[in-house]
Amino acid sequence: MLTTWRRYAERHSRATEAVFLLLLFAAAGPASQYASHSYSAEGLGWFPGQINAAVACVAVLWRHRCPRTVVAVTAVCASASGGLGYLITPLLLAPVMVALYQLAVRASRRTTQGYCLGVIALIVLTALLADDYGHPLLLKTLGPAFWLVVPALTGAMVQTRRAYIDEVRARAEHAERTREEEARHRVAEERVRIARELHDVVAHHLALANAQAGTAAHLVRNRPEQAERILVELAGTTSSALRELKATVGLLRRPEDPEAPLEPSPGLDRLPELVTAFGGAGLDVAVTTEGEARPLSPGVDLTAFRIVQEALTNVAKHAGVTRADVRLAYGPRLLRVTVTNDRGAVVPGSPPSASGGFGVMGMRERARSVGGTLRADPRPDGGFTVAAELPLTV
């Protein structure tokens, strides 16, 4: 019911305003005059009391644009009517109450308090000086003060509620924007992570497969048995590449697709398999472990394995050597992973520095993602060193 009336008032704002002003005039004019007749022995004429009520109601029209002026005008009109002998009742004070309410809704609390106290002082003073009816002192003072304070307090409460609603709406909009930005940020991070995984898988296995195929082609005439063994390992390399590609692409599966492949991420437990694969490609890898091996969190385990894998892939592709060293040093809080190789022949078409391309950049990103660091520098006596420090847990 209330919602229906509110919609009607919004659609017919001028008619609603006219009816409101007529009711306000009826209260401040005729109704106040009628209420005062029983106390007045001489009777009250329509002039100028009705004129005061009309001026006050017309002034209320501008309550939204200049509420301070409207409060002053309506207060003066009510005080003048009280001085003519009208009873100072809520009916007479109705225009002033409307003006004070609108002022409290729009102005600051200090402004509202100042105007409210000024109007109360004016009306109470009028009631004390112009009262010929012998009303009690409390009725002449507390009554008008109460009816003037109520709209001021109500308007202040409405202003506070509106400010609260605006703040809640602003927070909701900010939260929505933040949520969208966070979602975009997470999507970008996920894309980078998947791209890094694909790069590591493809670069490693293709480089390994290429090295195995080249070795097999070189040995097929003179050492067919060894070439056959390398070709078998090549099949295993390509099969492993397919499995890891499926596992990586499986990260993109939809929740409603339970058949999508998803395998456990590789870790340092697969390091012997990695060493064997590179051995088949002609790269002898020596692994040294210092300290007591400790369990790693899944993210750190995957990061350490990928760093070793990428570093050995770079050695096989660019260094032109047949040996590389991997050292795993377990400390109280850190795991230090170091991959080194000696000076070797420059492979035709290889980049001038092993730090170029996406490989080293991907290793650094991986290390930073788990709170670690990575360095990739040439050695003073030739060769290259990749050194990473990773926290044992994340």
Alpha-carbon Rg, integer: 44 Å
Task: Tell me the distance between the termini.
Answer: 59 Å
Helix content: 55-70%
**Dominant shape:** rod-shaped
Number of helices: 11
The helix/strand order is HHHHHHHHHEHEEHEE
What does this structure look like?
The chain is of the alpha+beta class. It has two domains: 2-175, no CATH class; 268-394, Heat Shock Protein 90. It is 64% helix and 9% strand. It contains eleven helices and five strands. Strands 1-2-3-5-4 form a five-stranded mixed sheet, covered by helices on one side. It is rod-shaped and about 130 Å long.
Key features of this structure:
5 strands; alpha+beta; 11 helices; 2 domains; Heat Shock Protein 90; rod-shaped; 5-stranded mixed sheet; 394 residues
Quick rundown:
By secondary structure, the chain is of the alpha+beta class. The protein has 11 helices and 5 strands; from the N terminus they run H-H-H-H-H-H-H-H-H-E-H-E-E-H-E-E.
SSE map:
Elements (H helix, E strand, L loop, with lengths): L1 H10 L1 H25 L11 H12 L6 H17 L10 H13 L2 H22 L6 H83 L4 H26 L21 H10 L3 E7 L7 H22 L3 E8 L3 E8 L16 H12 L3 E6 L5 E8 L3
